[in-house]
Amino acid sequence: MTITRAEVCAVACADSFADAGTVIASPFGTIPSIGARLARLTSAPELLLSDGEAMLIAETTPLGEESTAAVEGWLPYGKVLDLLAGGKRRVMMGASQVDRFGNQNISRIGDWAQPKVQLIGVRGAPGNSVNHTTNYWIPHHSPKIFVESVDLVAGVGHDRARQIGARYHDVQVVVTDLAVLDFQGPDCSMRLRSVHPGVSVDEVREKTGFELAVDQVAETRLPTEDELALIRDRIDPKGLRDKEVPA
What we know:
Keywords: Transferase. The chain has helices at 5-15, 30-41, 77-86, 125-131, 158-164, 201-206, 225-235, 241-244; strands at residues 24-27, 55-57, 71-74, 89-93, 97-98, 104-105, 108-110, 115-118, 133-138, 170-176, 179-182, 191-195, 213-219. By secondary structure, the chain is an alpha/beta fold.
């Protein structure tokens, strides 16, 4: 059975939700959304999913389809902010830049006074990264994203978290189309945990704009047959995953 890179990435994202418990999942992007749904159907049955608006839904609905599931609860925007401050979320965000300590930028590229590119602003990244577990999904691993120093800190990394005494800071992993990285290197720096099948350590190093900690690098695990069936038949029957990470 042929397993695609997108499916490997989806399972890696699902694993980042495995120990979440009873919290609301906030995945940003197609692959993280598949991962959160897969986790709820396998390793994290208490994970809460929303319809993307203000309802908590009872069923795990297919990606790209309007939910017809029973509603378990109402989640207005103000309550989301309460959850953000209280640590009851598990977030997987994107990043326009990320550095070796997990500082993330989604606000601007270039000088403060005259940016080259204006992005979406810091949004909820500061509160996410200091109040509950936050992970990152990067669909195109490149040295333009993995940089020595971010142009603006939106999501707080491990070095700054120590400086400000962020007690609940918990940035764990970065999943990309090439690899899974964690922060088990020296001084909580980024370490290459695993490479996806067909990817070499040297390829990841070449596409990273700083020196990665490299110890014993595993191969990212493949989805099981049951996980593949859930991804293909129940979660993403339209194959949206292959548009984000082409086969």
